[in-house]
Design a protein that fits this description.
Length: 69
Amino acid sequence: MRCLICDKEFSKNDPDAALPFCSPRCKMIDLKRWLGEEYSVESVNVDKLEEQIAGVDSEDDEPRQDLTT
């Protein structure tokens, strides 16, 4: 396996590994990046999603729209 932070190759059986990272240090670096908002997860516009859901007729035989776009 390769560490997601330092790209070091390591064995998942290594007792020092903190999967999916090679070490607790790399695991903490990743956590710091999440907490510092260096990483983000795409959010969904709730208003748009509610409009799309309201526009879908539950008795309609049409396939549902993809609500993730």
